[in-house]
Amino acid sequence: MTTTPLAERLRPRSLEDYIGQTHLVGSEGIIRRMIETGRVNSFILWGPPGVGKTTLARIMASQTEVPFYTLSAVTSGVKEVREVLARCEADARSMFVKGRPILFIDEIHRFNKSQQDSLLGAVEKGTVTLIGATTENPSFEVIRPLLSRAQVYTLKPLELEDLENLLERALTQDEVLKKRKFDIKSKDALFRFAGGDARKLLNIIDLIEQSTPDGETVVIDDDVVTSRLQQNPAAYDRNGEMHYDIISAFIKSIRGSDPQAAVYWLARMVAGGEDPAFIARRLVILAAEDIGLANPNALLLANATFDALNKIGWPEGRIILSECAIYLANSPKSNSAYMAIGEALNAVEKTGNLPVPLHLRNAPTKLMADLGYHQGYKYAHDFEGNYVKQQYLPSELEGSRFWQPGNNPSEAKMQQRLDSLNS
């Protein structure tokens, strides 16, 4: 009898066995092209648990036949990073190594700034190809210099068709399951509990198979799945991913202005031993994304909550988190700032590096002044009300509107001021 979990037994060893993420590994996918050409650049895989981040990194190393090193941000410090980088540098100089070593860092978002800084030199010099995996938005969790050296690729939860294919493969190809008789009567609960997570799906199947006596048919239906998971609610969550489901419910409850649900999900995380800093970081993000300009004080309170946790510690810190969650749930909501930066980024992507209007440029040298830099610029404080109308956008985007005020008193007041200035 094997003790290796089903998820590990079925871990794909090649792209042909890899399920999902066709936008990256399909015939035109960038990662497939990297593997086929053997030219792998540093990148970060961002996506929820159980969608194949680690597996994809291992496949890349295997199929490109280069040395592969792994670090976990949970257990590794700067010392361990430097030791691995030293081995990578030795490999890079070796005439027997085909290409640059790959350094895979799981949960790279848990590295602090100094740990991430220690990677920069090796990545920049090409000593190592960095592949990071994260479930957190790299824009918030990875330092800017590292982001500029590593492309970010987003992985998606597995779709229903992917889960169907994975189930079929498990029942027909796994060395243990293919010896058992299965009766699949319904799959709704199975796929619902899996939630687009391949590991969860396989862990549920593993649990049901192991709890069915030898010689009996393994029955999978909604009742069986629900009852088995209630008996062992962590069975499909062996690596601690349930907090991603609960943090999602927590965030959506606050966004939906339900303080009762927000406190309940907060209590679930507190009782489950969730990292308080993880909760606090998400509250800071939510304050900017979902409340924003409707109540700018929300971001101040969320940031103060993060700082106070570091000062107060645990368990008293749970009170601070509760206060913040209730305040944010009761705040008016607006995502106008979130939408505005998204619209502006779309414009940048479409129009490229448009030149800065000459009058907005500084002229620290005579040559720049002779070329017209800064000429015609109007200093706002020299005018009544500290305002003067002039062009600030590139000519090609003149008149564009990226920020649209939300339907709340705070932003209505902002819009009224703008209207009065331009009247």
List keywords for this structure.
7 strands; single chain; two-stranded parallel ribbon; 423 residues; alpha/beta; five-stranded parallel sheet
The strand line-up of the biggest sheet is 2-3-4-1-5
Give the averaged pLDDT, no decimals. 86
Order of helices and strands: HHHEHEHEHEHHEHEHHEHHHHHHHHH
* Sequence stretches where pLDDT stays below 50 over 5 or more residues: 234-241
The helix/strand class is alpha/beta
Radius of gyration: 26 Å
The total count of strands amounts to 7
Shape field: globular
Q: Mind describing the biggest β-sheet? A: 5 strands, parallel
Q: What fraction of the residues are assigned to beta strands by DSSP?
A: 5-15%
Count every helix, treating DSSP H or I runs of 4 or more residues as helices: 20
CA-CA gap between termini: 80 Å
Estimate the helix proportion, in percent. 40-55%
Q: What kind of assembly state do the chains in view correspond to?
A: single chain
Task: Walk me through the structure.
The protein has 423 residues and is of the alpha/beta class. The chain has helices spanning 6-9, 22-25, 30-37, 53-64, 78-93, 113-125, 138-141, 144-147, 160-173, 188-194, 198-210, 222-231, 242-255, 259-271, 276-291, 297-312, 317-330, 336-351, 366-370, 409-421; strands at 43-46, 68-72, 102-106, 129-134, 151-154, 182-184, 218-220. The strands form two sheets. Strands 2-3-4-1-5 form a five-stranded parallel beta sheet, with helices on both faces. Strand 3, helix 6 (113-125) and strand 4 (129-134) form a beta-alpha-beta unit. The protein starts with 5 loop residues before the first helix and ends with a helix. Residues 234-241 have low confidence and may be disordered.
